[in-house]
Amino acid sequence: AQKITQTQPGMFVQEKEAVTLDCTYDTSDQSYGLFWYKQPSSGEMIFLIYQGSYDEQNATEGRYSLNFQKARKSANLVISASQLGDSAMYFCAMRVMDSNYQLIWGAGTKLIIKP
Amino acid sequence: SQTIHQWPATLVQPVGSPLSLECTVEGTSNPNLYWYRQAAGRGLQLLFYSVGIGQISSEVPQNLSASRPQDRQFILSSKKLLLSDSGFYLCAWSVIGGYTFGSGTRLTVV
């Protein structure tokens, strides 16, 4: 079965520290994509970063990087030098190529940055 | 540029009343369109998706229906709302890989 697991329902992190949000996935397909989205209290879903299953290097976008460990089926999001504005819900999602581009979503992690 | 419009932003409706939420996209052709629902503090649940005009796939049997009368228009409807229909509804589109979400509609059924 295809599934995304985010085991951290909530996290508190001190401002300026780095934070790692966990995501593990389960699929038997060889071709898939992994996404991270941020959802602030306003509700909008903001795309952060994408990793394809055949990408050999970890994806990076500014302060965001994705620690992709294919053998372990994990795709953790790392936020460097956290800021107060990073406080939000974070969702990991997986797209399987033959699924009409549907996304399978994790339950999310609520991140709170402390000043 | 590619944009997605979703309205209204908030809606309070009585139980038993009808519902119509509209989503339109601009700047792209033949997108895949999706309706998601998010309960408070929870992840996203896919309700419907559409790969073309008049083509609707339902993921979860429920009190809701969807229609796609035009290529860039996706409508979520209900004939009679239930209390359990309350939630945050998000429309999204996808062409080749990336997804773009609308700003969402927060529906409260009272």
Poorly predicted regions of chain A: none
What is the makeup of the main sheet of chain B? 7 strands, mixed
Summing up helix and strand content along with how strands pair, one would put the structural category of chain B as: mainly beta
Instruction: Specify the overall morphology of chain A.
Output: globular
Question: Any idea what the radius of gyration of chain A is?
Answer: 14 Å
- Fraction of residues in β-strands of chain B: over 45%
Helix/strand structural class of chain A:
mainly beta
The residue-averaged pLDDT of chain A reads: 93
Distance between the termini of chain B: 38 Å
Fraction in beta strands of chain A: over 45%
Helical residue percent of chain B? under 10%
Order of helices and strands of chain B: EEEEEEEEEEE
Q: Most extensive interface: pair and counts?
A: A-B, 19 and 24 residues
Q: Could you tell me how far the N terminus lies from the C terminus of chain A, measured between alpha carbons in angstroms?
A: 41 Å
Whole-number average pLDDT of chain B? 90
**Overall 3D geometry of chain B?**
globular
> What letter string, H or E per element, gives the SSE order of chain A?
EEEEEEEEEEEE
The strand count of chain B comes to 11
Tally the helices of chain A. Answer: 0
Specify the helix fraction band of chain A. Answer: under 10%
Sequence-ordered SSE layout with sheet pairings:
The complex is a heterodimer of chains A (115) and B (110).
Chain A: E1 3-5, E2 10-14, E3 19-21, E4 24-26, E5 32-39, E6 46-52, E7 60-61, E8 64-69, E9 74-79, E10 88-96, E11 103-105, E12 109-114
Parallel strand pairs in A: 2-12
Antiparallel strand pairs in A: 1-4, 3-9, 5-6, 5-10, 7-8, 8-9, 10-11, 10-12
Chain B: E1 3-7, E2 10-13, E3 19-26, E4 32-38, E5 44-52, E6 55-58, E7 65-70, E8 73-78, E9 87-94, E10 99-101, E11 105-109
Parallel strand pairs in B: 2-11
Antiparallel strand pairs in B: 1-3, 3-8, 4-5, 4-9, 5-6, 7-8, 9-10, 9-11
